[in-house]
Amino acid sequence: MNLDDLHVDLDRLHGRLVALGKIGALPGGGVSRLALSDADRAGRDQVTAWMRDLGLAVTVDRIGNVLGIRSGEVDGPPVMMGSHIDTVKAGGIYDGNLGVLAGLEVIAVLNDLGLATKRSLAVGLFTNEEGSRFAPDMMGSAVHQGFLDLEEALAVRGIDGAEVGKELERIGYAGSEPTGSVRPHCYFELHIEQGPVLEQEGILIGAVEGVQGISWTEYLIKGVSNHAGTTPMRMRCDAGYLAAAIAVEARSIAREMGGDQVATTGLIEFKPNLVNVIPGQALITVDLRNTDEALLQAAERRLTSFVEQTADAEGLDVSARVLARFEPVSFDPSMVDLVERVARDRGFTVRRLPSGAGHDAQMFAPNCPTAMIFVPSAGGISHNPAEYTAPEQIRAGADVLLRVVLEKAMK
Ligand code: GLV
Ligand code: MN
Ligand code: MN
User: Fold this and answer.
1) What is the pLDDT of residue 218?
2) Handedness of CA 110, 70, 106, 400 (dihedral sign)
3) Which atom from ligand 1 is nearest to the alpha carbon of 357?
4) What's the CA gap between 221 and 283, in Å, rounded?
5) Ligand minimally distant from the alpha carbon of residue 192
6) How far apart are CA 389 and CA 19, in angstroms?
């Protein structure tokens, strides 16, 4: 059989994507399945049911990662495909879900043909990739690959005060499998780009070269809550002012550094958060990212010194907490070459590009040959219910995944 003749069944893959998107669906479109929420549980139940229907041996590990394994002809580490099914609070149906469901589609194609692979295959869904509810992001894959201590992860408290370990138990996904017991031979992740590059250039497939470094910091600022009308400006200890100044400075840093540097203030909470009261407390997060570790460190240093100096000048107390810190990673060049070659052989336009978003693949990259396949995101929109990738683009990405997996699993 010529492996190049094998193709995914778009209707089946797209049908699963749409069906999973109904779990935690938002009224106007998109989906809300924060990690370890009831909706996440329902999504996991659906995906594990599909895994079992496909004959996969399903395991759940102690951080809630789910792996479905299809045995190969020889013993040994599997060729792994994976991603996540948790979403941001108001997200789209594609981010993460596509990578998991395309993995199941690869299995379904092989099952239909009764085709055995030499190496085993595994499809993984990794806990809390998004990090929106519990930091850090990529939590499940980081524990799986030994970059985050299991007990530390289980003890993490989320934005709502809930604890990872207790939430895993509550939703029935505190598994017994030791984390990292299955070491992949290699790892592939199909994902939507979540940015504008492929669409703007009219290119169908991205061969991802690596993922930029991510630095998340939370600042808790304490001042003095007081009357907005009677407190002279010189007598204020205004926690809200410093939070606003940090947001502006983060953006200035990114603008002045240029290149790949980006900076985002995604969360600000004031206490008491009232029109006529000087905030006595402010909580703010800053997300800094760069493809270059030295530049990312320079951005971090500049922000830290700004926060310290401004807090001092304003008489405020600030404590900084690192929520996530991941260095940039490069994917194995031979794996990136493979994605590029297969995409070309399939007749698709392809270019190399770095990933701006974090992905489970970056946790695997230091430990095994890893690659990612990107497909375009309409308007570059993601982490938004309006996220969209056309069915034909999904088919192309999944066909590339199928072919690269076979390349590695048949030898
Ligand atoms: C995860 O999706 C991230 O890049 O923040
Ligand atoms: Mn994702
Ligand atoms: Mn995401």
Assistant:
1) 98
2) negative
3) 4
4) 6
5) 2
6) 16
